[in-house]
Amino acid sequence: MKNFKAKVLLTEDDENLGTLLKEYLTAKGFETDHAADGEAGYKLFKKNKYDICILDVMMPVKDGFSLAQDIRVLDAEMPIVFLTAKSLKDDVIEGFKLGADDYITKPFSMEELLFRIEAVLRRLKSASMQGQTEFKIGLYTFDSNKQTLVIGTKTNKLTTKETDLLQLLCEHKNNVLDRNYALKKIWIDDNYFNARSMDVYITKLRKHLKDDASVEILNIHGKGFKLLVQNA
Question: Which domains does the chain carry?
Answer without folding.
Answer: 6-129 (3.40.50.2300), 134-229 (1.10.10.10)
